[in-house]
Amino acid sequence: MDNSEIKDMVRARYGSIAASKDGSQPKAACCGAASEVGEKARRMGYSEAELASIPEGANLGLGCGNPGAIAKLRAGEVVVDLGSGAGFDCFLAAREVGPSGRVIGVDMTPEMLRKARENAAKIGALNVEFRLGELEHLPVADNTADAVISNCVVNLVPEKAQVYREAFRALKPGGRLVLSDVVNKSPLPPDLKADRELLCGCVSGAARAEEIARWLEDAGFTEIRIVPKAESRDLIATWAPGRGVENYVVSATIEGRKPAAHGAPASS
């Protein structure tokens, strides 16, 4: 498949998830049935207080970690969420930055945007907005964000290096990138690598940590940290039961910082 075919497939898959009326999900995906998403979110590191604070329907279980837990968001900051889905991480970030801050969710799936905007209306989230766009071409001005976050999305994008360049552009000097994503730890066997279900399921599109570090450095980031989370093995095994995908990919936190302008303090 070429890049446009991959995007179309991913857009169709996640559009169908957003439009689902009964919570049904694909058989191979970083998600689960509606009855399971709360438990999976707890296993990703979300607290009961966080889960209780979001509107019903915002948590679709489409993640592999909790980027907000390590982003250290502060009141008044501007946050951009890459692949914001139904708004789960955006709404949590909005609580941290408060009414003086702002959260911008970006997603390429119109169905997800509609769902996210409906969820925002339910809770009157006036400091959150959702924009249609691809992560390789963010609809965000230069030097906008104090923090760019994302949860298990960059692995789905064909041109990953371009995503990191765009995140760097959108960050203010001193701003930070904090992602939860899936990284490859061992070459996939041919049957798994060729499986389209596993591409949409956050497995076969995962890059190696070494590649990600190089892309981040080439984009201009410093203070790069990629930390695999061994405890994610059991969760990942549920994405494609019985196929052993947990032997080849792992959830990781990915961090980097845009150098501060000369004489200016870094955002922390």
Task: Give a written overview of the molecule.
The chain is an alpha/beta fold. It has one domain (3-257): Vaccinia Virus protein VP39 (Rossmann fold, 3-Layer(aba) Sandwich), CATH 3.40.50.150. The protein has helices at residues 3-19, 37-44, 48-53, 68-71, 88-97, 110-123, 160-170, 190-193, 196-200, 209-219, 233-237; strands spanning 78-82, 102-107, 128-132, 145-151, 171-184, 207-208, 222-228, 249-257. The longest helix is centred in the first third of the chain and has 17 residues, at 3-19. The N and C termini lie far apart (40 Å). The mean pLDDT is 90.
SSE blueprint:
Blueprint: H1 3-19, H2 37-44, H3 48-53, H4 68-71, E1 78-82, H5 88-97, E2 102-107, H6 110-123, E3 128-132, E4 145-151, H7 160-170, E5 171-184, H8 190-193, H9 196-200, E6 207-208, H10 209-219, E7 222-228, H11 233-237, E8 249-257
Parallel strand pairs: 1-2, 1-4, 2-3, 4-5, 5-6
Antiparallel strand pairs: 5-8, 7-8
Strand portion = 15-25%
**Could you state the oligomeric state of the chains shown?**
single chain
Please give the radius of gyration in angstroms.
Answer: 17 Å
What's the end-to-end separation, in Å?
40 Å
CATH topology: Rossmann fold
Name of the level-1 CATH class? Alpha Beta
Q: Please indicate the count of domains.
A: 1
CATH architectural designation = 3-Layer(aba) Sandwich
Mean pLDDT: 90
Structural class by SSE content: alpha/beta
SS element count, helices: 11
Helix-strand pattern: HHHHEHEHEEHEHHEHEHE
Low-confidence stretches: none
Helix % is 25-40%
Shape annotation: globular
The CATH fourth-level homologous superfamily:
Vaccinia Virus protein VP39
Total strand segments: 8
The major β-sheet equals: 8 strands, mixed
